[in-house]
Amino acid sequence: MPDGTPKRKLYDSVFCSLFQDPRYQLELYQALHPENRDVTVDDIRDVTLEEVFMDGMYNDLGFTVGDVTILLLEDQSRWSKNITIRTLMYLGESYHRYLQATEQDFYGNVPVKLPRPELYMLYTGDQKHDEEYLSLADIYWGGDGNVLDLKVKILYGEGKDSILSQYVTFTRVYRETIRKLGKSREAVLETIRICKEQDVLKDYLTAHEVEVIDIMMALYDKDVYMKLYERRKEREGAFKQLVKLVQKGRLSLDEAAEEANMTVKEFTDEAGLKMY
After folding, report:
1. Which of 121-125, 157-161, 229-233 is modeled with the greatest confidence?
2. How far is CA 95 from the centre of its chain?
3. What is the number of structural domains in the chain?
């Protein structure tokens, strides 16, 4: 992760906060598997990748159901086909940790025991998409599954009153509210009020209202920070181009300094150039 970029905290979104609770993980599993009512909270074990790994990436949610299933789910408001390669990396790390935790020898000849993977992306964006799956092989190798394939099932929050449909409704209420009130504490409070009134995540929002407000206000701060960070990187990129032009003799120091809105000394000091 580049220097200066904000690092993620454990629960930096409402999605992560909501589904860190095994009770809601169970509700999620039952929404995906209504045929399996025998699973209990005791069968659920959270395996979300909470630490920095592979250049600072995290996944949103991971949990196992007994030794049978490992479920990974990403919450995405922007459509991204690259979710497939990210999920492959998350799954690899999750399996690595699972094998270490179960003390299995994956260097030996006997096949290790692995829970069956279920890979999902919950799409909450405004753009219309109707894909049921995104395939790694289709996206990167023209459908050649002989190389490697992995399919991520796309969820859109269908299903009356399921925990997923309630979360998607929450995100839509939130977007509509900030269109009216802007990104503000008032918008956050109004989103919570509307959702409680409509019985959307009511129990969660009642029990965690202060936490939800803190999370959503922190996201506002992060948006501002990232915009400032992006502008700084753009300026740095433009400055580096000016330095290259000076080094190649295409611009004089005076011209480059004027373009950068600096004195010649400021420009040379910043660039580490020697004045002749």
Report:
1. 121-125
2. 20
3. 2
